[in-house]
Specification:
The complex is a heterodimer of chains A (about 425) and B (about 210).
Chain A (H helix, E strand, L loop, with lengths): L5 H21 L9 H10 L5 E3 L5 E3 L4 H6 L7 H4 L18 H15 L1 H8 L2 H7 L8 H4 L18 H4 L1 H9 L1 H7 L8 H5 L12 H9 L3 H6 L5 H7 L2 H5 L5 E9 L4 E2 L7 H4 L14 H11 L8 E9 L2 H4 L26 E6 L5 E6 L9 H4 L12 H31 L4 H6 L1
Helix pairs in contact in A: 1-2, 5-6, 10-11
Chain B lengths: L2 E3 L3 H25 L9 H27 L13 H21 L15 H26 L5 H6 L3 H25 L8 H8 L1 E3 L11
Antiparallel strand pairs in B: 1-2
Chain lengths: ~425, ~210
């Protein structure tokens, strides 16, 4: 569609304003109708296609749907409630140039903050804000999720209109088919929607630390007690096995070896200047074998060399591979409860290993590692905090066990055979010895 | 034939309880560690049985410990402090098992009430009862509830370190138990030592004498 230039649009809008103003005086007032002052703004901004050029290139749409705005919760405060910097007498001539859409959106965040202080403070600590501060153009600001001129009560809380799915479409699709999504669709409001687990504005990285477990247990308060009735070392499982590992049976699993600093009590930030890390890509999907047991041991030694504050250790967790799989939760009755799934050699859960550090926004950065780190004797100290009986047993100990069995059984058999041989062929018995 | 009462009832009860428990612990340990390869008992049941057997073993250890601590029989476990006598005894007994026994040489060790272990047995039982079993019990308790003992586990290097120690001692026991059972057949007859462990009386060969013999 051909777009109208800003100045031409403004002139046309002025004419339309007069027409609309007259019409407004004669038409009966509607409950959802914009105020007279807002109608003055909408005289121009109500025209489809109205836009202004941006200093950095591109255009900024200026069209506002009057009906939608009139019905929105913001209609009560009117246009100047948010756009207080606009002087109607000099507008639009005195409009300041805007560099880019993102600059405008960031500026408008501060406007939202004036009224929504609590939500702003929550957002400011969120992973979304951290990504925005990193300069990530896709990081959501207030207006990304909440269409400011059509804000409706409950829109962000309904499955078909929740804004999260705009960016996280694949995850939302997985969620919608999950036990949570199906229940929510059928009207069970106790079943969580996105914000139920992730927070509405204080969106955190749920995969970091014990975040995911705590989120799940926030609703499933009975889960620890019910797991204790059948699961040995249940608390340990809660600590090191992410809930979706068992509750999304079809998911691929990955052992996440998290570098953890004892001084900061947090995940270690990406180490700089350490060759073992410099040579790796940040993708677990890399075709490279990744960190081997020796390299991992060397890496930890380097991180814990003299002069470094705090001790870096590894905290292992069993996770599902992707965020999409994290959301494919099934009913508890269909969850994995067979111990053999993980506690045996070659278990699928231990075929994929990553070493992760905290990224600047809190999102983990994962580096591929060889699965041998889980079964190597060299790793006893490196990954002392992660061990699954049977599943990640140390191969060297298996060899020792076989040798011990051979020695323990074979030794007596050999000794017995030698005694029999001497007695049979050399006629050496204690009785004869004494007689002699 | 003379006989000597060297295994009082508490010792016999402790010994057979210990023997059965240790064998069962090794078997359930093998099932737990090699699930998938061996599937005699479901993993969860093997873990539960292993844990309870561990409790029995630890309780039984204290039966042994307090019995010997508060009776004069503790002398059988007192170490030989003279290094020359100690190594001579070890060598003499090793030579007997490794050479003399085949030629029909007599056992250089003669049992008595307060000296019922030959030098090899003495050092072995001291290591097993005062070092390996306590460590195995301790690591077993940690592995039983890793969350409850998380601080101790972390201070000792983590669950993998604890488990490795536990498995190493399990391997030693897997070697030791069949050897121990075999050495029990090397009495005057194949069943002498076994009978003694039930009746308490060890029979002495003719010409063999000892303090306390009847």
């Amino acid at each position: 569609m051909r777009r109208r230039p800003f100045v031409m649009g403004a002139i046309g809008a002025a004419v339309a304003a007069i027409v609309l103003g007259v019409a407004g005086m004669t038409a009966p007032a509607s409950a959802a109708a914009p105020s007279a002052a807002d109608q003055q703004c909408l005289a121009c901004h109500g025209m489809a296609g109205l836009e202004m050029p941006l200093a950095g290139g591109g255009t900024l749409p200026l069209h506002i749907q009057g009906d939608a705005f009139a019905q929105s919760v913001h209609s009560a405060i009117g246009c100047t409630g948010c756009h207080a910097d606009i002087n109607p007498t000099s507008h639009p001539a005195a409009v300041k140039p805007i560099a880019s859409k993102s600059e405008f959106s960031i500026a408008m965040v501060q406007v939202c903050r004036n009224c929504h202080t609590g939500q702003f403070e929550q957002w400011d600590k969120s992973v979304h804000a951290a990504l925005a501060r990193e300069g990530n153009a896709a990081a959501p600001l207030c207006t990304t999720c909440h269409s400011p001129h059509a804000v409706m009560k409950g829109v962000a809380e309904a499955m078909d209109t929740i804004p999260c799915k705009t960016c996280h479409a694949d995850i939302f699709t997985a969620y919608a088919a999950s036990v949570h999504g199906v229940m929510r669709s059928s009207g069970v409001t106790a079943a969580p929607l996105c914000f139920g687990c992730h927070g509405a504005h204080d969106v955190s990285v749920p995969s970091a630390g014990a975040g995911r477990r705590d989120v799940c247990l926030g609703c499933h308060t009975e889960a620890p007690a019910s797991h204790r009735t059948w699961l040995p070392n249940a608390e340990l499982h809660f600590d090191v096995v992410s809930c979706p590992v068992c509750h999304t049976p079809q998911a691929q699993r990955v052992v996440d070896l998290v570098l953890y600093n004892s001084a900061t009590q947090k995940e270690t930030a990406r180490p700089v200047g350490i060759p073992e890390f410099e040579s790796l890509t940040g993708s677990s999907a890399s075709a490279r074998p990744g960190l081997d047991p020796t390299t991992l041991m060397t890496l930890l030694k380097t991180l814990n060399s003299q002069g470094v504050e705090g001790k870096t250790s590894i905290r292992g967790r069993l996770e599902v591979r992707t965020g999409v799989e994290d959301h494919e939760l099934v009913a508890a009755s269909k969850a994995i409860s067979n111990c053999n799934t993980c506690h045996q050699e070659g278990a699928a859960a231990f075929q994929s290993v990553v070493v992760s550090v905290a990224g600047p926004s809190g999102m983990p950065i994962r580096y591929g590692a060889s699965k041998d780190v889980l079964s190597s004797a060299i790793s006893v100290q490196s990954i002392g905090g992660f061990y699954a009986i049977g599943g990640t047993r140390i191969t060297f100990l298996d060899v020792l066990f076989v040798l011990a069995l051979l020695g323990g059984i074979g030794g007596p058999i050999a000794h017995l055979t030698a005694r029999w041989f001497f007695k049979r062929y050399l006629n050496h018995t204690p009785q004869e010895q004494r007689k002699g | 034939m003379q006989r000597i009462y060297i295994h009082p009832l508490p010792v016999r009860v402790w010994h057979w309880t210990n023997a059965v428990t240790c064998v069962m612990l090794v078997l359930t340990g093998v099932q737990i560690r090699y699930v998938g390869l061996i599937n005699v008992v479901p993993f969860r049941i093997a873990v539960a049985v292993h844990n309870w057997l561990g409790v029995v073993l630890i309780a039984n250890f204290f039966v042994w410990f307090f019995y010997y601590l508060f009776t004069d029989r503790i002398r059988v476990y007192l170490p030989e402090l003279n290094p020359v006598t100690f190594f001579q005894g070890i060598m003499r007994q090793s030579i007997y098992y490794g050479y003399g026994i085949f030629k029909g040489a007599p056992n250089p060790f003669h049992v008595s009430i307060y000296r019922k272990f030959n030098p090899l047995q003495a050092i072995t039982y001291q290591v097993v009862m005062l070092l390996l079993l306590p460590i195995q019990g301790f690591t077993g308790i940690l592995l039983w509830n890793l969350t409850r003992f998380a601080g101790v586990v972390a201070a000792l290097g983590g669950v993998r370190v604890i488990d490795t120690v536990h498995v190493l001692i399990f391997i030693v026991f897997a070697f030791y138990i069949p050897f121990h059972a075999y050495l029990g057949t090397l009495g005057h007859t194949v069943t002498d030592h076994y009978k003694a462990m039930f009746t308490g009386y060890e029979e002495l060969e003719e010409g063999e004498s000892s303090d306390g013999a009847e």
